[in-house]
Amino acid sequence: MDDLPPRPYSRCRAMSASTASPVGNLPFGQRTWCLGTHASQPREPSIGIVVPVFNEAGILQSALERLCQAAGTLPVVVADGGSTDGSARIARRFFRTEICPRANRGEQLNRGAQCLATDVLLFLHADSRLPERFVAHVQQALQDASVVGGCFQLRFDQSHPMLRFYCWFTRFPGRFFHFGDQGFFVRQKVFEQMGGFRSLPFMEDVDFLRRLCRYGRFAVLPVPVVTSARRFLRRGVIRQQLGNILLVTLFEVGVPAERLARLYPHIR
Fold first, then answer.
1. Are 194 and 212 in contact (CB under 8 A)?
2. Does 120 map to a domain?
3. pLDDT tens digit string along 141-167?
4. Any idea what DSSP says for residue 18?
5. CB burial class (10 A; 0-12, 13-18, 19+) of residue 175?
6. Residue 240 within any structural domain of the chain
7. Is 243:179 a contact under the CB 8 Å cutoff?
8. Residues forming a β-bridge with 53
9. Backbone phi, then psi, for 78, in 5-degree steps?
10. Which domain does 131 fall in, by range?
11. Residue-wise pLDDT tens digits, 106-121
12. Measuring CA to CA, which residue among 248, 182, 264, 175 is closest to residue 212?
């Protein structure tokens, strides 16, 4: 599966192969139709997944095995930030893998997005697991033309009262409750209009959400991704969460991401 071109995905089905018209990777906004024996129906928007990684060899094998099962025929691109632990080698066993010149999550996400010609882009952290029927949930949210993107709610892979309390808030809108580990998705056309992610050393997800909301509604889906609690457990749940709130607040009032990055420990 090494370095194969991304495959278009469509949930549009006809009555039989002989009666179906081909469905290609058309630009966003163009509707294609499968012609069957009865009334035609517009196809659902196609979804492609981008996974940024950097020195994640310890979890990557199992994480990509799960993603392979969940994604099915959806195109997936792994964007590696120059890992030194063999992460790229592991990723190539499963999906197309792009090597970026440096570890910068925004640049990695942009690189992966460039490889996809789908209507919708879904950005997933390596240690986050997608819920069942995530495709249907994303497509249902995007039936509302005012919705330009969204994310899932959050659940951690460890049980802790404070973690459960924090996760409860992720059902509500607001930049203090939604981060990149919740699986942001966006219409490809809007992503291009935004200019993608900015090349920030930190807070690229908070910056992205702030800019995305200028283009339309941001939907919070009623199902959660499950993500790793490793950072919270190592630093302390309360300390980590208070630190997150402080850093987002400082970023919102104009403190540069470069300065904030020096205050944030990169724990894996």
1. yes
2. yes
3. 999 999 999 999 999 988 888 888 888
4. G
5. middle
6. no
7. no
8. 80
9. -100, 130
10. 47-228
11. 999 999 999 999 999 9
12. 175
